[in-house]
């Protein structure tokens, strides 16, 4: 999460050797400057000198660069990078996956560029930065490169991922860039809706999401209002998360009876609170209860299954009642192993996401795991 | 390394539960019951699943934990999961417990148990 204010940014030529917050912010800023320089002035838009104030460019040590017309052959750029840096250069950009390059590659390409600031060295740097380990830099590269790359669709995907970032700055940057390059993109209307939800959350009535605990967790604090995971979701992702004291809870029992009763209670709770169509964040067998509730007629918006043991067909949602199902889990979950449940859903309507974390059943409700930008969990929703 | 210790404990717990089911050695069962009080959610959950899966074989150990007031909320929940109606009066005793978490767990347990009818 980007937190501090940068009062004295490094020179752009030094920023690419810095792997800290000030370095990443300056790298991102420079990539956006590069994009503006390569686009040049366009009729109907602000003049370049207005977009890029001379004194700011001077303080950052930004070298002059002539605009280019037409699009840069991204495939050729990628081939030349692959020839130079070897097989670590992915042929495509698998958005959402953790494709990271060694930091020395960015530093080396930046050195090339500042030694010889041309559109060729700029495009090498931008193409490489699409795979930068820090989401802000990769989103900035996609925003900057979009108008000049021969593969803009790939970059649109990166921007779309960026709109789901846990970090507000990255979300805003990605959404602004997406609005510039593809104003009709469907994600923008989703984004507007969620912004509307956030705005409405100051009122007491607007709730569109709720947390449901799993087995033996009735007395646990993480899922309750003011608990760590509840607070994380509320403050960072879902300002509309249900936070009143009469939140839903169930016994957390392990038996089929306990879950069935939990499903009945969830349905009653939703009806009595007039909250049909809630998005549900469920952990462990809390997901099984929510699935059962959908089978009993409860409508769910997005059903997020965190570390949910797979017991199909016993626990499977009624897909007519649920808009979207996303599963997030770790590898070889030991609790699921003890439960003798399946470790993966294999249904085309369930988006399965496996984190590069092993064994820990609780990991999926830990705020630190959600905040970790390499896992990109918010983008999975 | 210390952070990963729970993984070894979890694997040991799974093995311990399997051996307990075969040998019925009470000492192993007690080890599992004690793990219900672990600070690690993974260990607590694995212990709970092992006891619930053992069914009536786990009841004497769980009743012993009730008498000692150990890990009451989770013990009450597991007793209801096992579904033995004979535990009802014992569970009911806790539904007015001074600790609201224990009282809530007992009330929920009674509801689950009532579904056995």
Brief synopsis:
The complex is a heterodimer of chains A (381) and B (117). Chain A has 381 residues and is α/β, with parallel strands linked by helices.
Please, could you describe this protein's structure?
- The complex is a heterodimer of chains A (381) and B (117).
- Chain A is of the alpha/beta class and 381 residues long.
- Helix content of chain A is 44%, strand content 9%.
- Chain A has 16 helices and 5 strands.
- Chain A has helices at 12-15, 21-39, 48-51, 54-60, 74-85, 103-115, 119-129, 135-145, 152-162, 168-181, 186-200, 228-237, 256-272, 286-295, 334-339, 367-371; strands spanning 209-212, 278-283, 300-306, 322-331, 350-358.
- In chain A, strands 1-2-3-4-5 form a 5-stranded parallel sheet, with helices on one face.
- In chain A, helix 8 runs antiparallel to helix 9 and helix 9 runs antiparallel to helix 10 (168-181).
- Chain A is elongated.
- Mean pLDDT of chain A is 84; it is low at 91-99 and 195-206.
- By secondary structure, chain B is an all-alpha fold.
- Helices cover 71% and strands 0% of the residues of chain B.
- Classes of the chains: A alpha/beta (381), B mainly alpha (117).
- Chains A and B meet through helix 13 and helix 15 of A and helix 1, helix 3, helix 5 and helix 7 of B.
